[in-house]
Design brief:
With 200 residues, this protein is α+β, with helices and mostly antiparallel strands. Helices cover 37% and strands 18% of the residues. The strands form 2 sheets. Strands 3, 4, 5, 6, 7 and 8 form a 6-stranded mixed sheet that branches. The protein has a two-stranded antiparallel ribbon with strand order 1-2. Helix 6 links the parallel strand 7 and strand 8. Helix 1 crosses helix 2. The longest helix is centred in the last third of the chain and has 26 residues. The termini are far apart.
Amino acid sequence: MLDGLRKVNKSYPLLTTKVEESGEHIILGTGELYLDCVMHDLRRMFSEIEIKVSDPVVKFCETVVETSALKCYADTPNKKNRLTMIAEPLERGLAEDLEGGKVTMKMTNKDRGKFFETKYQWDLLASRNIWAFGPDEQGPNVLLNDTLPSEVSTPGSTAQNSSLNETLISVGTGRYEALDEREGIHQARFPMGYSGRPIV
């Protein structure tokens, strides 16, 4: 079956497959007819096995219409560090640019910053402090480092700061990936603040 799923993935470029915690293989496509064609090819051409199919499920997405009134925060166990996060709506058209690949995390920080400054009038600090797009690499949400230099203590080594940044990015993207899986959040911006050890 896995070989059949790989083959059908190559034949249908808009198809996405994933495995749930229960072990079920989920096939995501653009519509019911599209999925019927995929299942026909999977059954007849690529795997020649009997496949049980549940009714199609349409996932509805929520979005953020105004900046959240409450700030979510989490303290580390030693109480010396604090992460904060809020949700804000994205500018109109930005989610389409993100999903369409007009701006990516593979761009240099300067080029990505210039894109946001010129097209969406973001300020220099915000446009150069984008940590991730998500929930996938090119998803319709933005995770920002919203930490001001005055909010962190004296600088540590570059290796410590780099490791800390990677950890915070994985925590932040994990937090909104979890939100996205449950609620289907689309077109949101998540500024994430930090106080404690320094961030470069």
